[in-house]
Give the backbone structure.
Amino acid sequence: MDLADGFTAIFVSLGAFFFFAGWVGLVRFPDSLSRLHALSKADNLGLGLVIIGLMPQASWPFGMLKLVALWLLGVLIGGATAQMLAGAIHLDDGREPPGGNGDFARRTSEAGRNNEPGAAH
Amino acid sequence: MTEAQIYGICGAGLVGIGLYGAILGRSALRRLLAFNLMGSGVFLVFGAIARRGGIVDGTLSDPVPQALVITGLVVAFAATALAVALLIRLAAVDREEAPPSAEPGSADAPSVATTPSAGSPSAGTSP
Amino acid sequence: MPEIPLPDPRWADLPLAFAVLGLALWLTLTRGDRAAVIGFTGYGLLVAVAWVRLGSVDVALTEAALGGGLMGVLLLTAVARLGSDIDQPRPSLPGDLLIGLLCLGVAAGLAAVVLGLPSPAPSLVAAVEDHQAAIELGNPVAAVLIAFRAVDTLLESVVLALAVIVLWSFGADRAWEARPRALDFGEPSPALVLLARLLPPVGLIVGVHLFWTGADHPGGPFQGGAVLAAMALLVWLARLGRPPPVTDGFTRLGIVVGPLMFLLIGLAGVVLAGAFLGYPDAFTKPLILLIEAAKTLSVAVALALLVAGPPALSGALSMRRTGSTETGAKA
């Protein structure tokens, strides 16, 4: 096991630990929103650490760039799906999602057009 | 124990679990899932055979069983899509034949098992 | 750095196999249908990792794309439309145990077969390698699929097209002109719309790349076509576009062009190379790439349409979970 493999082992293990921490949050937190928060934060961090750990194993430059692209996709999709899940959880509980399910642009422009006093967020 | 043996036994176990679910599954969708489990188990047994061939010849895996499994995966997906569409259509047909006096909330009540008699006389007229 | 030997990767195989079996058992026995479907999607991804451990990266890609991704979308739409119809009562405990024992017996018999496989294992690796040079493909699985067992692949393309036709036949007669509505889930979340704007260009590149690189590396038309189909589904779910009606000419052309191209080149091979699906020596690789390109398009269209479902009128599908019915002219 040389230096690169040791680096990979350390960082991938750290990433795995954070995935495990996210699972602990999933199991132990009381309600859906806090579980979602724990999962998305811990999983994103774990993914980043795993990608950093895999960098020495990839070829330069395109292997590393592909790993970074994977990480960017993971973060984008993770964030968007967490938003969707949170909106669905709010709707499930019977309340309007705060901020109108995230569509600030449309909501404030509509409110502004109707001259509502609460148009600003 | 080589990884081929480990996953081969795993595939055998999956066939058993899938068979149990296919016989005793509570709803049609669960039985469909269990059937897919069985298919997945059989493919894993194929994969174990392919890996054993690869070990013998020094490569990763024998390509011929892999090609068969890829074909099988695509056909299994197509069959599952047909089964799902059939289930949805059956549920829609049953809902159309539910008594019109039922309230909207319970018009979607489980009627697959309870309205076979209502369904059969008009089965010829529904598309 | 002290010389620490790398651990044997087989230490990871036992936990993975147990995880696969445990997840399969859980999703067979759990109560909720939706939980079972989500578990099945996770199961598909674990099995994809198992396929990588078995050295079959092409199969792992196909399993992740089809078994994990597209199948998950398909089954989730099914759960949303069907709800939890329990149509079979549980048998008594003795009957339950008896069936469990029988299934255990089947599994044990199959495991005995797996452990008793002949050794040395028969293998076709050498035979494929001997003939692969004439095909000029670096990926042996692609060579087997498109050249050595081309009839199987041709028939499979036809099966996909036939599956779409059968799926369309499930629609009500009066809904024939309508669009498929299985993906109609109400107003999409803005986050979903964002994803459906950002991801399809990326997915298009990834899908075409998977097809193109499948000639020499793991990949191929099925994997690329599955990614392209997923992008189409994403756009349809976010309502940035709608699934085409079944009467649309371009759609029908897209479904048919793959098998048709394959069949025509195969028939031309009778004249040019002396056998059905024989490839003339001078044009082997260009012909193969042409067939695979057409096949990628057809696979993408067929897979997307298989998930989109049969044509239906609005109101014919209902969202079981909320108990509400899709009404109104959502044309």
